Each structure stands twice: as C-alpha cells, then as structure tokens.
Amino acid sequence: MAAAQLISRGKRRTAAYLKAFLSSDSETSRLQGHQDLHNLLEHILSPERAIDDPENLEWLQWLVAGGDTPEDFAKIVRRHDNATTCGLVWTANFVAYRCRTCGISPCMSLCADCFQAGNHTGHDFNMFRSQAGGACDCGDTSVMKTSGFCHRHGPGRNMNVPPCPHEVLAVAEAIIPRILLRVVQHFRDHCRPGIDAYEADMDAVHDADSVLSYLHDLTRMGAAMRKVLTHFLTNPQTYKNFTYGSTPSDHKRQQYQQKSQENYQGALATIPAPPPPFSMEDIAALKAELVHQTFLEELMFWTLKFEFPQKMVTLLLQMLPDNDYKDAFTRTFVQHYSRISVVLVKASDADTMSNRVVHISVQLFSNEDLTRQMVETHQLLEIVLAALVHMMENIQIQSALHDPDHNFHMVVNCSSSTLKDHRYWPLVSDLINILSHRSTAAMFMSNSALLGMWAEFVSLFTGMNLNVRELEHHVEFEPNTYYAAFSAELEACASPMWTLVGHCKQKNTDHLCRAVIDSCLTTLQDWFDAICFQETPPPLQVSFHFPLHRHLAVFISQAVRNGSINIDTILGDPDFLIKLMAHPLQIQVALCEIHSGMWVRNGLQIKGQAMTYVQCHFCCSMIDLDLFLLQLCTSRLDPDYCVRTVLERFSVDEFLSLAVVPADLPMNPEQELSMLQGALLLLCTLQSTRTHLGLNERDLLRQEMVSQLCMSDRTHSQLMDLHPKMPERTTGSNQMKDFEATLKEVADFKAPNFEAGGMQQGTYTPKASVWEHEFDPIFILVRAVHRRDFQTAMDRYTAHMKQAGLVEGSESPWPPFRQLQKVLHTYQGIRKILNSKTLHGLIFCILWKSLTLSQSLPEPIIYLCIYLLDMAVDPMCNKPSSTVKEDVAACVPDKRWQQWFPSSNILTNLRHEIQYITVPLKQQESMEDLEDIPEENEEDMDTASPSPSRLGFSLAPTVVRGGNVVVTKSRDGQSRKSPDASTSSESRDQGSSSCEDTSGSEPMDTSSSNELKIEVKQSILSMLVKLHDRLSKDTDRYEPAETWEDADLKWSRGARKHKARDGAHVIGRLLDRIAATCQENLDKLKQLCCKTAPKKFHRRSSDGGDREERRRKARDKQAKLLAEFAAKQRTFLESTSMEEDDSGEGASAESPEKEVAQEEELYDCVICGQTDPSTPDRPIGRVVLLLASSVLGHRTSKDEPPRLPCSDGAALDMLNCGNTYELRQSVMQENFQMSSCLQSVSVGWFGGVYVQSCGHFLHSDCHKSYIRSLRTPDYQHTTQNIDVDKGEFTCPLCRQLANSVLPCQPHQHPLQKVVLEKRRYGSHKKTTPAKEQIKSEQEKAALAQKAAEESKPEEKQKADQAQASTSEELQSQEDKPEDKKDEESGRVSPEFPRSIPTPWRQQAHVMKENQTLDPKPEFQRMIKDLGQVLKKATNADCEDDSILRQGVESIMEDITKATYPKYKVFPKSSVDESLNVFVHSVARTNLELELVQSGNTIVNHSSSSRKFGFVDLLHVLRFHFNATGMDSLWTKLTTLYSDEEERTSQLCCSVFDSMLVEKRETPMVLRDATALLIQLTLSLPWPISKAHFTCIVRVLFTLLYTQSLVDISCRFSEEERRAWREAGTDKAASTECMMTESMLGCLISHLVHTPLYHDMDTDLQRVDISQSVWSPHSVEHHIQKYCIHSLRIAALLRRHLFKEDLPDCQDPEQEFQTLVKFLDLQHVPPPTRGDASASGERPFTSASCLHWAVPATQMISHWCQDFTSFVNRKQGPAKLQPRGGYKSLLLKNFAWRLPCLLRPPSSYDSIFQYHRQRQCTMCCSVPKEPALCLVCGELLCMKGGCCRQQSVMECVQHSISCGAGTGVFLVVNSSTIIVVRGPRACLWGSLYLDSHGEEDRDLRRGRPLYLSEDRFRVLTQQWISHSFDHMCKRWLWHHNRL
C-alpha cells in the first residue's frame, strides 16, 4: 500500500493495520507489513522533511502504539518492566541522597523515591544538590549494599513480572532503527563544509530536540522497551544495513547518501586523535583513524562533536540498566576518550561540558569489575594518561627557575585557559575514579611505564608559577595565576597521589611503594639536571609548587610506616639530599620574608600565595610534605651543616655576629628580627612536629582538631571543612566515626544562642584538659593562615588558665610548648640537631644579645630559643655517659660555633664558659677610627631625643675603651655609649658580671689591626640565670636544690603541674631540669647563684621604686587635669545660669515663669546637643519610623497556633481578624450610609500605619540640615541602603532607620495663663481668673472633706476611700462664660456645673442596689455638658504660620504615604470621611499593637512608658480630625438633648430616616465602641479633662454591654431565649444579677420578632446548649470576655493621656475587675448594715459597672428599636436582604489570640519533600525557586518571571497584599528565611538547624534539619514588634525582583 493511502486512513487505523500485519504468524503478511511501513516511513522520515515537524512526530507516536493511544501503550509496556535497578537519570541541581553506610563506592547516589522507600534510619546519609548530574544506583550491587535497596529494586525483586508479548512491540522494533537513522542523517546534514561549525552544532541539537525527547519517553517505559532500543543501538549489522546497505535505485537518494557520507568523514576529521606517546601507538583508541560500527558509536561521536548536549547525554545514560548495553557503551566511551581532551580545550562552555563528561564517566568507572576489564583489555589507564599529557604539553613554556639560560625544563603555563578554567578536571576526576579501585591502582603502580609517564606529567607542574622578588619598583600588574597553579597541583597531582597512597596502607604493598619511589627518584634526578641545579637556589626566586618532591615524600612516609624500607639505601647520597632539601627550605624562607614585608613590591598576590600554601585544603599536600622532606634530609645530613644552612638561607648569620655590621644591608632591624624568629620557628617545627614521624591517623585527626578549636570555636561543618583529610572525601563511614569520637573527647558543645543581638550557631569549644595538656603552639603556628590566629589562640589559652586559676606569675604567660615526643626509629637522626655545636652557639648568641642590647630582643625570639634549649636537654636527645670532650681555645673566632664548645652534648656545653671571642674588623673600621668617635655623658644619653638606634635594636657591639664609657656602633652606623663597667673589677674577678657589665668588658690587646678580642667569660647556664633574674619582677633569685636527688624530685613535681607560666617561671623550670640532669650542672648552678652580685637586685629594686614613683606622678597629673576640667565646666554652667537669671525679672522675685520653666519637659537634641523645650517657633521632634502593618489582621480566634501545611489533607483556616472586619465592613457599606458606616468602624487591620521610635529627639531645623547633608556626595557611602529622597535617614545617635519626625507638643500648664495675665495686667494684680479657679477648687475640696467627717462613723472609712479614689473626678469648677474654656491642670479635673450640690460629691459612688438601673441627674448633666463641649469642638489649635504647624502637616503627609493606596482609599466617600476614618484608625492601630506586644493583657504589664510618644501622635491626629457632627453622634448615643428644640429636630430626622427606602444611618448596636471612643477623644479640646474621658468610657461601656447581650442572645437556643425572656419579665430587678436578667429579657423581647434569631451563622450559632450551661455565671463570663478587649484599649488610652501607670494585676481572673476600677466604672459598694454575719461581700458582676444616661430599659429599647426598624424595613424583596444574613452585621468581638507566624514542622524534610513539587497557584507550574509565606502559607515563585505583574515579581507583590510591605518567606530549596520590608530585603537566617546546632544554607551538606524553637520565637517576636528594620543589618534593594 502506498504511503498516501496509509496516511488517508488516519493515524490510529493505520497503526492498527500495520500492527496486525507485523505481528502475524504468516511470513507473507509480515513482509507486506514491513513494505507498507517502509513506504510510510520513507515519507514521514524523509531527509527532505524537517526532523522537528510535529505532524511527523505524532505519526511516530501513534505507529509505535500500534492502534492504542500513546498513553495506553506506555501503561501496557510498563506492566512488563522487570528491571532490577532504578537507573533514573537526573541533571544538574537535582536533589538526591547519598548514604555512606550503604555505599560501596563514594559516588553512590539515590533518587528521593528510592531513598524514602528504603530503610536508612540511623545511617550516615546526606541530601545533596547534584552539580554535574547523576543516576540512581538503587539495585546495583556493585555500588551499594543490598540492605539499602528499596522494595522495588534489587536482585530477584521483579522475577514474577511476565515478559512483554511480541505483538506489543512489533511495530516499535520496526520503527526504532529508522528513527535512529533519521537522527544520524540529521546530524550529518548539519556538518556541511562552509558553514559556521558552532552555530551548526547548536542548530542540529535544537532541531532534533523533539525526536530525542520521544526517545527519552521510550526509555522510560521500562526494561522491555529499553531492550529494543539497546539492541538496535549496539547491533553492528543493523548499522551496516541502514548506513552502508544497498545503493538506492533513486538517483536523488543515491546522491544524498553519498553527500551524507562525505559530511560524516569531514566531521571525523574535525576531531583528530592526540599523538600517542612512545610505545603506545598500537592502542586502538589512540590511533588517528576512527571507525564506527554501531549506531551507538556514531551517536557517541556526535555527542562529543556537539560538546555533550544534555538531551543526548541523558538518552545514552537512561539505558545503562541494561548490562549488555552498559558494556558496549563503556567500550564506546573509551574508544572516544582520547578525543575528549581535544574538544575540552576548544569548548565554548568548558564548565558545562566538563560536568556532562563526568556525568557519564562516573556511572561507568564506579564499577570496579567493568573498570578493571577496560584497563586490561582496552588500556584505559594509558588512554587517560595520554589525554592528560597531551592537554598539558600544549600549554608548556620554558621554566625560568635558577638560570633561565641553562634551564631546558618545561612547565605548564598557568595563565592558559586550560588551567584557569580547569578544563583538565574531567580527565583528572576520571583518573581518580579509576584509581580508587584497589585492583586498577595496583596495576598502575606495578607498571613502570605508567609510573614513568605519570612522573613526567607531574614534573610539568614542578617549579611552575615562579615568583621573582621586586627590589626597586612595585610590580605594575599583579598576575592572577596563582590560584590556578594551586588548584592544578591539588587536583591534577595531589588528589591522584592521595588515592594511590590510600591503597599502600595495606599489607603486601611494599613493592608498590618502592616502585613509585624509584620512579620519583629517577625523574627528580632528571629534573635537577634539566634545571641545571646549583647548591643554593637564587634568593630572589620562589615557587610554591614542587609536586614531584611531595610525591617522593609521601610514599617514603608511607613505606616507613609500613616498616618495609631502609631509607639509607634509597637516600644515601648526601649531595642528592642537599639538592632535595633546597627548594622546600627556600619556600620556608620565602614565607618568612613575605610575612616580614620583604615582598611587598610584588603586590597582594604574593601574600595570597603564602596564605594558600598553609590553608587547610592545601597544607596536607604542600607544607606538611615539605616539612617532612626537610626532616628527612636533616636526619641524614650533618647537623652543623643543616643549622648553618638554615641560618644562611634566612640571612641571619650576620645578625648573630659580634662584629660591626655594615649599614648597607638589605634588611632593616625589624626584618632581621622577623627572619631570626622564622629561622628559630623552623628549627622548633622540625623537632616538635610529628605529622609524618610517627603519628597515626587518629592522632593526626586529634591534633588537627585541637589546633582549629584553639584558634576559635568552630561549628561542626567548619571542623570538617578545615581538616585536611576529611571523612567525606573517603569511602565508608569509619573515618566519620573516628571524627565524631575524637570531637567528643576534645570539645564541648555550646548550644546556639543569641549573643550581641545576633543569632549564633552551635559551636564546639575545647575542653579544659585540651588547654592544659594538648595545646601545641608550634603546630598552631604552622596551621595559622594569619599571624593573628596564633595570638588569638594564646589569648584564649591565657583566659582559660586564668579562669581556672592555673597561671603562675604576674606577666602574660609564655606559650606552653609541648615536650618532645618519640619518633619512629628511622627518623631518630633528626635529634642530632639539638646536640649540634652550631645550634648551641646560636643559643649562646641569642642569650648574649638579649642581655647586652640596649633594648631586649622580642619575646618570641627568646622563648623559641629557650624552647630549643629545653628540647636539647631532654633525656631522649643526649646521653651524658657517652660525651667526648674536646679541647677548646680560650679565644674562639666569631660565628665559628663549632669551635666554641668542647663536645656535642648540651649538658656539657651548658656550663662551658667562653672567655674571649675574636671579632674580625673591616679595614675601614680600624681601632683609630673607632677611638675618634666623640664621647657622650650618660646623662646626655638618657635625656637625648630617641634615635632610631634607641627605639630599635642596637646590634653587634664593637667594644672600644674610651674613658669611663664603652663606645659601640649600632647597625645604622650611629655611635652610642653605655656605662663602662670596667670599674667593677670585683665582679670580673669572681668570674661573673651583671648583664650590664658584659658589653663593657675591657677588650684584650689585638694581635693585628683587623681583629678584636672581646672578653665574654659567660656560659649558657650563667646567662640563663641572669635572664631569669631580669624577667623576674620580684627580688627572689633563682635558688637551686641542695642535692642532685632534691633537684630531680623538684623537677619531677613541677613537671606534673600543668600551669601557664611567664618567662621567669619557664626559665626557672628549665634551670630545675638542668639541675636534675647531672651533679656537675647542679654544682655549677649553685656556684653561679652564690656569686651573683647583690648590687643587681638592689638596683632593680630601686628601678622598681622609680617606676612606681613615675606611675604615681602620672596618676596625680591626670587627677589634676580632670579637676581643672571639672572646675572650668562648673564655671561655665554658673555663668550661663547667671545670664539666664539676669534676663528675667530678677533673682529675688520668684516669678511664676520660673515655676513654669521647671515644669516644662526638656528634650536633648542628638545633633546639636542642646537641651530645650519644644516651642511653636522651634519645635523638637521625636525620631520615628512610619511603617505599614498587617500584623493585627492576621490574628485568629483559635487557641491552637496555625501550622504550615505539609500534606494534601492539611488546610489553613483563612478566618482571621482582618478578613472578619473587612467582610463586616463591606456588608455594612451595602446597607448603610457611607458616612455613618465609616464612623462606626475602624480600618487598618491590614495596612495600618504603625509609628515606631528609638526614643531620640531632634530640632526641626537640625533635622532639615541633617537630611541635606545626607544628600551630599560625602555621605553617599553611608546612605546606600536608605532612600534619602523619600525622607529616610538613620538616627544620628543609635543609627536606627527612621523616615519622619513626630513633633512634640509644646507644654501646656495651668500656670502658663497666670504668667501671661501677669505680664498683661502687671505684677500688682492680686488675683486672676485662673487663680480664682484654683481657689474655688481648693474650697470645694475642703467642703467635701468636712462633709465626710460629719458622716456616720461606720460610713466614714468608705467615704474617705471613695473621695480619695475620685477626688479629681468629682471636683467642680466655677461658673464661666459659655464661650470660654476652663483651664485644666496637668491631670485635669472634671468639668461639672456649679449647680451640683456638694453632698453629691461625697455620695456619688455610694449607691443603693435599686439605683443601678436608674440614671443619675449629675451624670445626665455631665453628659449634656460634654455635648456642649463637642458642639464647640475645633481642630485648629496650632498657630497658622508656626513651624510647629508645618511639622504637624508634614508628618501627617508622611503617615498617609506610609501605607499603600489600597488601604486608605474608600470609594463612595468624601475626603473628610475617608480622612477621619484613616486618622482615628491610625490611633487605634498603635494602641492595638501596643496591647499585642504586651501579650494582649495587662497582667504583669510593664509600667515603664514606651519610647514612642502616643500623646504627640494624638496631637497630630487631632489637628487633622474633623470633629463636625460628633455632638450629634454623642446625642444619639446617649439620647439626651440639651433642649426641646434639639429633641424635636432629632425625632423628626429619625422618623424621616425610618421612612427612607434607601440606606440609612448605622444602628447604634452595630457600631464599634472602641472606634467611637477614639473619635470622641480626638474631638475633645486639649488638654482633655479626665472627667470627660471617664464620662465617655461609661457611656460606651453601656453600649458595649448591650452588644454583648445581643451576642449572647444569638447564641441561645429558642427554648433558652424563651426562658430568659420570661425570667426577665417576671422577676424584679432587685439585685445586680436580676438586673442582668431583666435587661436580657427586655432585649430579647424587642429582637424576638425579627429574623435575626433565624439566621444561620457559623461564627455565632453553636450547638444547642441546655439551660444548665447558660447559667447566670456563664452569661457573666461571656459578657466579661466580650468586653475585656475594649476595656484594655481604653485603659491604654487613659494611661497615655493622663500619664498614669496601669494597675498591678497578677491574676488573669481579676483582670476585668482591675480594668473597671482603673477606668472608674465600678460603683463603690454600700456600707454594710446589721451584724457581722451580713458583712460578707457579694460576687462582682459587670452590671455593677453600668452608668445609664436614661433608664436602662428605655436605652435598650431605643437601641433595639433602631436596629429592629432597619430589619423590618429590609423585609420584602430578596435583594434587600443583607449579604450573609443579619448576624453578619453584628460586631464579633472574638477573643483574638496573639498574632503568630505559621508554625513549621519539626523536620525540614517534610517541607522540602512536599513543597518542592507543588505547583504555583498563579502560573500552575512547579517553581524553580519555591518560597513559602510564613504569614499565610501561600506557595510563591521567587525570582520567577512567570508570575510577574507590571515588572513586580510575585514575592514582592505578596508582601504588599499579605503584609502591607512586610513579607517573611521560607525559601524551600535553601531552608533560609528572606524578609522583605518595603523596597529592601535581607537574608534573616534559617529556622532549621542540624543535630550540631548549625545552619545548612542552600542545603549544601544535606544533613537532617530540625526546627529551632528559639529562632522561631525570635522571628515571630521580630515580626510582631516590627523590629526587622533595626534587628537585621544587611539590607539590599530588591528592585522588585523577588
């Protein structure tokens, strides 16, 4: 059948037709089916058609399905999947797991599904994000243990799966080869000559993407389909038939086939094979010709040609579960491996290609059997090495080491892209992977050709990146190649080296070590010849890279550990050893020179090399091996030669001379001293460091860990990272167990805490025993990257020892150097250095100079010298019985230390006294020249200005007789003199002189003019005694023991004491040790101590007295200066005070102005420093931060805190405070007038403005100048994270963020008007209206006191208590004109009319029980008076043109801008109405937030005032609040009218309003009492009267009480309402309890006929509760619960207005009663009558706090009728019914809980596994960077452009909609918290810590993480308190990109 006919039948029918023919048993039918399919595929897969045609791809999918849908076909094939391995392939950034407990190979990895399905509880595992890609190894027994397999994979897991029937795959078997052919043809077509190769490669892969994706889908169908694919990929006959088959008859097709073959051959030529090394020409993979025999081989070539595209790499790896394919693919990969290096060098994206190469190789070479097979049959090792050598040979340059003209060695070019871009990394990684198998490593080390090839490869890195020291000019360009050099040595040389060494630790590997050593020795000798090595390297050259030396060192170390080698047979040639130690020693010298600043002209890069050399990742492979090589050489060479070489190479031998040193030396004195310290440190290090001299792996681990902990407390991950040999870099978990066990032994865990305001992670600190026994200063100096690290360790050591009381001495202790430890017998020769005469001479010279120089040597030089001496006297380093003494001349030559001492034993040389030293003189420095130096007096030297020689170190004295002084010449050539001690002949006769006498000893006669003899007559022992006495501050000299046995006992006891000692005590301990060595030394010590001149101690004592005298004088002078300064300050203050007094009316007149000034509040301006009151002309403002807040809106009513959902069944309850009030507000706006509605509610639950202050103040003009200064360029570096143009600034004092200044209201005091009237009328006026007012108030208070005394005795106490509690409230004032306000005091008294009788004030709160329902006339008059005040209320209380007014308007503008438009715009309302609701809501928001931050209660509330001044904010809000109409509101609230005309007008309005069909005013029972309280408070004139405020609170409490009754009645069942209604009607209200019943009955009677009780509302309707539940007690409890929140707000408002402390309340049950007492709501109980039995108090009820303006039933009826008329008016059409029912209009005063962030689960894995695969609700895709909002729980696309709106990304949008600009987001893929605050964002940290109390940001370590309760609590607290801005420091502009 023709193709056209088949196409016309349709895809499904054609597929079924072909399947029937191809699966038929008839041969004819099958042939017919193949022919028809061939015809169809010739059309579909024609090369002339585009490969990415979607129609063609759809045809292929339907044809392979064979009549089924592609989805059904895939399900059918998967049923027959019997694969025993997972084989899931992933790409970069995929999250996988690695279990070291189950892994056999270190590269083992598992997908998340297999890991979760397996049993890994308690295993050592981690989660990681793949960098190069990988595949799941579950089921592969060659990679991991069977115990770690999941239930789906493993040997024998799928044996019961039936095989796939032939007919299912019949069509697929016929089509798949044609698909592979089409892919190959497509790739060949894109390699035509004459086109851009790179563009063509990219186009070829891009166009084939759809077909490759379809092949991916086929491989994912299971083992059955993979078998079909792999069969055709690896079948040579199939490839031959389709590519080299019969020539097609069509001429056009024939031409295409020929052209395709030409393109293919041209492509092969573009990737030539590298030239094979000698003797490797026969290896097939290294031959130039490349022949492909299968589709797999050609696809591998195209994969290499296209630089390993991801689609092809994944396709080739997905079939690896097929073992036959794995073998074939490995052979194919090895076949093309040599060409990988060629492509890598030229790759456009080397990093990506490298990752993908490793992605393939790690799957192949991790299998030991397969790798060994490739090594044996296909010479894999030779191929990899050849590729590496070829890559490096292409970047060779001439080595410049030593003499470049005679150096013919080649090194790699560190500036090449191959090294800088790490293009060699894939090949090295594969080599390491191959050598990680023991069998292949043994093959490598047993093959001498391979070893030689490897050594030649390593030699290419030896001596690279040479540095030459600049002496004159600073280097113009600092090269950045050093890190490439260090990385290359570590990765290409050291890593394979350590892999090989790991296999040599086993038994029977001696021959392997010897083979490597021999290869290294041969190559090293050739290298020395190539560089034309001389005995000493050039001093101005240094290279840190000698990997060939280090290879030799590490294998010798391992061979010695195995005990299988004799070093003397290998390294017996001293000349070779001298060459071998030259370059490692040169590196140590260069290190010291760099630290001394001698390489400063080479730039910072040279210091970077020095730091990298000792850095933790490099030290094990560099400095440790270099030091071991030096130890190895010095143990075999002459010790005197070694010490002399060290001194010469450090250039300090001249410093140690006693001759005159020329002034033109290249080093200054500081550099010389630093070099001397470096030389001593190296000598000490060689003796004390045992890294390769005998420490085992466990001891090495312990030593490294102790050194890092001593320098600083470390986290667990830091310790693992800083350790040179990490457990994670090895196979298995034994090393990890050793690590944990060692860490437990040496360190204590310090749990995470919050120090200095920051979050600290869990750290480990050294145990006390570590400081006392294991602290090793020398090893810390070796490991310290910075010198300050050693000082830090010493400071920590000193602090610990002082805390433990283990410090001996008054000075800072010396480093506690460790005693010598045993080394392996092979290295015992290194101890010979300690008995070297040259070393003893070095010690002698240092001690001599420390005593003779005008300024002592630096302390490090002295204590390193003492440490060398201490090691030398150790018993393991010397044997006194074997000492051979030699004759020593009385006069010894300078610097020839071998001639100074009689033996090579320090115990003998200690007491040897050197008589004279011959110092050679230069010809120009003859004796006559020295005698011509002018002399100075001693006094002149002491008083002269300090010269460089006096400030520095005077070196190498040349002694000349000159009168009574000794003339010496310092290093810089200047003359100096010191007292001549020649007159102290007595001391010299005794053979011992003081330290000052030694330099002044009389010289002997010179034998020639070029020599000078210096009289010394000192021994090492005598100088030790003198140095001890000099360092000791007390007068006690060193006292040796009497006998040798006592000396030994004294030393033994001291050795057991672990104390920190200063220099004197350390030397004293050394002397004790010397005394304990032998009797001769003890006798010599006793002789020295007895003959020490007492004059020295007397002089030192006098010096100490002089020093104390100088200190005393300094203290006296300082005290005198301070006294003078204080006197001047007092004089200035007094003069200022006098000027102020003179400017007034006179000091004698105590004017009221002075009293007012004393009452005014003063503020300190933090800019100008002045202390002033705030005035209208120069106001002072409070530094504030205005920010929008939605914290209040996220409160919920549930007791259980909300949890972050981490499963499909979990859901969040979205009902919160903000949603509730917004829904109610929208319903009210639909049913009532907008003005009335906005007056009845508060907004700001979402987006409310919160005012926060740091508590500091500024003048307004200072603030403006400060802002101007911040805009200048000089301050731009300090304003990077603030927007100055938007008013942001940092507080000048505390540096907290601020964006506005809140003006402080000028002080208003009652006496201010007294002052003004006095100035107006004159001082002779006796009285003023204000005074009359005060007098009237005093008279009334006296009358009240007299009336109270005349009352009944039993009522007197009650009356006194009542008057005391309400004395201010019940004071009345004089009558005053209506148009004039009464002046109030600071805590203002109430404004009662004058007509109120005096006795009422006494009995105001002494009410009878039957009066609680009745109104009081006095209360009614107060209400009417308050109505008149509100009627005249105005908001203009600032002067029109004052600066204060400008400040008030400015901050109100800032407040308005602080929030977003959606939170402050109210449609269909006027500007005044919107402004009013916004203004009063700002006040409420701040009160509500203050209550929230205090725990939503006043229980245990702190009485301290807040930094933020609420009263000042209230002043600003009052100025902008429109009080018009508030008198009408007050009248409607109280139903009291000032006259009949007003009553008639209100009644007419009410009748007219009830007749309206449109919206009407909001009924009073639906209005928010708290909102009304704030609005009425803002409407009152300032200062606010406490009586007025109390009156408002009382009236609103009745409204609140009534609303609570309505709420309760809606919760009743029908029967309960009937019962309470009848009870309220039948029973008289004779008690307070009955009063509640009567009011509730009255209310139900009015509302029962409305549909209110018939609405079903889930928030109010509860399950019917029996009568016993709604008892009077439960009703009372509900009333208090309903009202208490509003009472808390009222109490806070009163506290701020009148500066009263909140009452003390410790019991939550008493909070309601405490609040009503504080607010003056509770009536005073009546006096008790009758006998004592009747004196008990009745239970408190809320009804006792009611104050009715009119009778209670009348008021309740009025409010209920108002609501009933609205409900009845709504009856009728359905469209008039309120949305949500009538109950939705009621005020739901839930007991809102404290706001809280969503609580995350305890394990972070729950979050990660669930949310990383969730889809975003906006874009319906899985986010690349998912983030969770911890406020509402929504999943967001962080940094994703998919959800971007108007250039604003989703997280920024959500922070506005959910948090009004504040967002708290948990980034799922990194476990970190990101806080968004407006235009800024910061990384807060992580809520999750691992078992070591440490964060794992970005999940790099992948350890299990657990929720930190402390951190979650801190995050929640910072969110609630709005303290992110000043608690988080590192803010960045997010630019709407989150």
Question: How would you sum up this structure, described in words?
Answer:
It contains 77 helices and 35 strands. With 1938 residues, it is of the alpha+beta class. The protein has a six-stranded antiparallel β-sheet with strand order 29-28-30-31-32-35. The chain has a three-stranded mixed β-sheet with strand order 14-15-19. Strands 16-17-18 form a three-stranded antiparallel β-sheet. A hairpin with a 5-residue loop joins strand 17 (965-969) and strand 18. Helix 68 crosses helix 70. The radius of gyration is 48 Å and the shape is flat. Mean pLDDT is 78; it is low at 726-732, 923-1008, 1093-1104, 1137-1158, 1309-1412, 1628-1634, 1658-1668 and 1726-1736.
SSE topology sketch:
Layout: H1 3-8, H2 11-22, H3 27-44, H4 54-65, H5 70-78, E1 89-90, E2 95-99, H6 112-117, E3 125-129, E4 134-135, H7 166-189, H8 197-207, H9 209-219, H10 223-234, H11 236-243, H12 251-269, H13 295-305, H14 310-317, H15 323-335, H16 337-346, H17 350-365, H18 368-378, H19 380-393, E5 396-398, E6 410-412, H20 417-420, H21 425-435, H22 438-446, H23 448-459, E7 467-468, H24 482-503, H25 510-530, E8 541-542, H26 547-562, H27 567-570, H28 574-595, H29 604-614, H30 616-619, H31 623-636, H32 639-649, H33 669-688, H34 697-711, H35 716-722, H36 734-746, E9 747-750, E10 754-755, E11 758-759, E12 763-766, H37 768-773, H38 777-783, H39 787-803, E13 807-808, H40 837-852, H41 859-872, E14 891-893, H42 906-909, E15 913-920, H43 927-931, H44 938-943, H45 948-951, E16 960-962, E17 965-969, E18 975-979, H46 985-989, H47 995-998, E19 1011-1019, H48 1020-1031, H49 1044-1055, E20 1060-1061, H50 1063-1075, H51 1079-1091, H52 1094-1143, H53 1152-1159, E21 1163-1164, E22 1171-1172, E23 1180-1189, H54 1217-1231, H55 1234-1240, E24 1248-1259, H56 1260-1270, ...
